[in-house]
Specification:
Elements (H helix, E strand, L loop, with lengths): L2 H16 L26 H5 L22 E3 L2 E6 L2 E5 L2 E4 L3 E5 L4 E5 L7 E6 L3 E6 L4 E6 L5 E8 L1 E4 L4 E6 L5 E6 L4 E6 L5 E3 L7 E4 L4 E10 L5 H6 L4 E8 L5 E9 L6 E4 L1 H4 L14 E8 L6 E5 L2 E5 L17 H17 L9 H20 L3 H19 L13 E4 L4 E4 H5 L13 H18 L1 H19 L10 H4 L6 E2 L4 E2 L12 E2 L2 H17 L3 H22 L10 H6 L5 E3 L2 E3 L10 H6 L9 H4 L3 H12 L10 H12 L3 H10 L9 H8 L10
Antiparallel strand pairs: 1-2, 2-3, 3-6, 4-5, 5-30, 6-11, 7-8, 8-9, 9-10, 10-17, 11-16, 12-13, 13-14, 14-17, 15-16, 18-19, 19-23, 20-22, 21-22, 24-25, 26-27, 28-29, 29-30
Helix pairs in contact: 5-6, 5-20, 6-7, 6-9, 7-9, 9-10, 9-12, 10-12, 12-13, 17-18, 18-19, 19-20
The chain binds 2-acetamido-2-deoxy-beta-D-glucopyranose (NAG) (3 copies).
The site of one 2-acetamido-2-deoxy-beta-D-glucopyranose has 5 residues, from helix 13.
């Protein structure tokens, strides 16, 4: 090879390296993640070559997966990019026997004549918005959560309009900057343009076509469905100011601030809120600030409840948080018999602990390690310091397999953790080689669940054994950064360059999505809210273990928001007005919650397995469980629902029943205790001592049973 060739090779290599995300992780080796592959062309070239880690669970991920043509629900519209058309839908909601769904139809499509069939690539994103641009960049579409208008930015492109509906009528204002279009579906859409844009029914083709002024246009077109004739003046008033960006900060514990950057000139920003926003939105008293103020007269439907107008470009949301630490907040009831019962169970559970937890699955290993860590904290609560050394030894050798790649403790261990430089994340070698292994960990599915358990176990051991903690701080901080990176961390410098911001958390819906790099017709999804809560709780404990107040605070803050969303959307109390009465009558808990679907089925079980549907929203039982199920009235409703036919179904195992009895303990500890004592088996993340500890620490528990 000549010198010139090696120079060229060097330059090409330098370009190839730059195209990868961030620096290497500081304590895990790198891994080639074949399961995730490389980012598609549906990410703009700029984003692909920026070197910044790309999001893997964002609300708009369908737009960059496969051919990008699956719609995503950007409240209040379902929006699809397909063959050059940007199609808006104000979705219809359908009640099915086992689900509530929203259906996409191409109600109103806008495209650019000069770029027929163009692909739209994601050109920018932030916490609350995503922007797509056509290949020739004549049409850019910034999509902002909760915007009643969808904004189209044309730069020298001729707008084309189409619809699957018949057009009944088009009326325009005198200067042709506002149009009102009535479809035979009954829907009325308003179009606002920043300069005249004559639109008429195209009689030459068919009544299904609209004709815009057939000239290149530079400016803004905004489309909004008119849900109520009385709202038209409101939509007129706020038709100019639009958001181009939206970012989120956590300025104080349990507080989140949404800040929008606006363009378009005159007027204030009008957005829409969900009921779950309004219950915690700090409304501005006066005027003259950017702070949000409600406009209840403007309403839109959504699967997450009725939306209402909010004016202002800064939203402050404050969740009713609780700062739960290592132990049960109120401690054990003052009864020596209770302490004795837990202590005896604990002795048995600790005696049964293996020297090394052997399981090559990241999920099941994590659960088992966190279960062992719980035993140590329970030992502290029942004053059995004699047991903690044995538990710490098991945790040390078990975690060594993953954190130190120590094969001496288990020569058969084949799975390991590595850093994927392409996407910026920690994956398992099994998950990287096989997209189905480790529940899709290589595809960035469920990272918070799996690593959350590791972080819980690591935090507990670091607290018990500070020397071990300082030796493994790097690994633990990398694991937590993988799913909860937010800005710079004093203990993991450069983590923002190595991991995407809050990988799973959706700042607008205030809960996490688990789905990873997989396109779905119903959009993103998450099943277990309790495992999501556990991951943020574990992060807060890690912060406590390392005296890192910022990490501890962000952890409890995300616990508070994820809890708020779980209680608002997944928990279905009797009398809920969020879902159809028939659905509410049959369901106390959602199985899998999708952007466009409320599914009563589980990933691993049918809708009829009610105790499983309850259990997957409860496990693991830890001190933070009482925050997630703070409403003991609801706990009673969900337990009565799940236990109705539990004893007549053979597949209702003791392991799952344990979670039903756990919730029962929050309002009737005596009965729960009676049931718990009959159990022969526990879920692999639960134990007899953990369930007894829980029951004997409930607030409803009398001094003596
Ligand atoms: C269209 O709407 C306008 C204004 O409401 C009305 O005057 C006109 O009769 C309508 N045309 C048709 C064809 O319905
Ligand atoms: C890991 O643990 C789970 C749950 O106990 C079990 O079902 C699975 O077979 C174990 N896997 C391995 C590889 O040991
Ligand atoms: C949570 O509790 C810990 C320990 O009691 C305390 O140091 C910390 O400041 C608290 N954090 C919040 C957000 O209240």
């Amino acid at each position: 090879m000549t010198n010139n060739n090696s120079l060229i090779t060097f330059i090409l290599l330098a370009i190839a390296v730059k195209a990868l995300a961030g620096d290497d992780d500081q304590c895990f080796g790198s891994i080639n993640n074949a399961a995730a592959g490389i980012p598609s062309q549906l990410w703009s070239t700029d984003l692909r070559s920026s070197g910044a880690p790309l999001p893997t669970n964002a609300f708009w991920l369908n737009y960059v997966l496969q051919d990008g043509s699956q719609p995503e629900y950007i409240h209040p519209y379902s929006i699809r990019f397909k063959q050059g058309l940007v199609s808006l839908c104000y979705p219809k909601r359908l009640l099915q026997p086992t689900a509530v769904i929203q259906v996409h139809t191409d109600d109103l499509s806008i495209s650019c004549k000069e770029e027929p069939g163009t692909a739209f690539a994601v050109s920018a994103f932030d916490d609350l918005s995503v922007t797509l641009a056509s290949q020739g960049r004549r049409l850019t579409v910034p999509l902002v959560r909760g915007s009643p208008y969808v904004t189209f930015l044309f730069r020298g492109g001729t707008p084309l309009l189409s619809t699957i509906n018949a057009v009944i009528n088009v009326t325009s204002n005198p200067d042709a900057t506002k149009h009102k279009i009535l479809f035979n579906s009954g829907q009325t859409w308003l179009l606002y343009s920043s300069s005249p844009l004559p639109i008429s029914i195209d009689a030459t083709t068919s009544s299904f076509a609209l004709r815009a002024d057939a000239r290149p246009f530079t400016g803004t077109i905004r489309a909004a469905v008119l849900t109520d004739p009385a709202s038209e003046p409101t939509l007129d008033t706020y038709s100019q100011c639009y958001a181009t960006r939206g970012t989120v900060e956590f300025p104080a514990p349990f507080t989140m601030q949404h800040k929008y950057t606006t363009a378009g000139g005159a007027g204030e920003l009008l957005l829409l809120s969900l009921p779950m926003h309004r219950s915690i939105l700090q409304q501005a008293g006066g005027t003259g600030t950017n702070a949000a103020r409600g406009m209840p007269s403007l309403t839109y439907n959504s699967i997450d409840g009725q939306m209402e107008g909010v004016v202002g470009s800064t939203w402050t949301l404050r969740a009713g948080g609780a700062n739960v630490s290592w132990h049960s907040p109120r401690g054990l009831r003052a009864d020596p018999a209770a302490s004795h019962e837990i202590s005896a169970a604990l002795q048995r559970d600790v005696d049964d602990l293996p020297g090394v937890i052997v399981n090559s699955s990241t999920y099941f290993f994590g659960k088992a390690a966190a279960r062992a860590a719980r035993l140590a904290l329970i030992a502290e609560e029942v004053a059995r310091p004699d047991l903690t050394g044995r538990i710490a030894a098991t945790l040390r050798s078990s975690l060594a397999q993953w954190l130190d790649s120590n094969h001496a403790v288990n020569p058969n261990m084949s799975n390991s953790i590595g850093y994927d430089r392409q996407w910026g994340g920690l994956v398992s070698s099994d998950g990287a080689a096989d997209s189905g292994a480790d529940f899709g960990l290589g595809m960035y599915n469920d990272h918070h669940f799996h690593w959350g358990y590791f972080v819980y176990a690591g935090a507990v051991l670091a607290r018990m054994d500070p020397e071990w903690g300082s030796q493994h701080r790097c690994q633990l901080y990398s694991l937590v950064s993988d799913y909860m990176q937010h800005g710079t961390s004093q203990h993991n410098s450069g983590s923002a360059a190595r991991y995407p911001r809050l990988r799973h958390f959706d700042h607008w819906l205030m809960h996490s999505w688990a789905a990873g790099l997989k396109n779905f017709a119903d959009g993103r999804n998450q099943e277990s809210t309790s495992e999501a809560v556990n991951s943020y709780y574990a992060a807060s404990l890690l912060g406590s273990a390392f005296h890192d107040a910022a990490l501890a605070e962000l952890g409890v803050t995300l616990v508070a928001f994820e809890t708020h969303a779980a209680q608002s959307l997944w928990h279905v109390p009797l009398g809920s007005e969020l879902y159809e009465a028939e659905f509410v009558a049959r369901n106390r808990m959602i199985g899998v919650l999708w952007a466009n679907k409320r599914d009563t089925a589980l990933w691993f079980g049918p809708p009829e397995w009610l105790e499983v549907r309850l259990g997957i929203q409860v496990l693991p039982v830890t001190p933070v469980t009482e925050v997630l199920f703070s409403d003991t009235g609801f706990a009673r409703e969900v337990v009565e629902w799940a236990s109705a036919d539990m004893d007549s179904r053979p597949e209702a195992s003791d392991g799952w029943k344990g979670f039903v009895f756990a919730l029962q303990a929050s309002y009737d500890p005596a009965t729960a205790l009676h049931h718990a004592r009959q159990l022969k088996e526990f879920d692999d993340g639960n134990s007899a001592s953990n369930l007894l500890w829980w029951i004997h620490t409930r607030a409803a528990n009398p001094e003596r049973l």
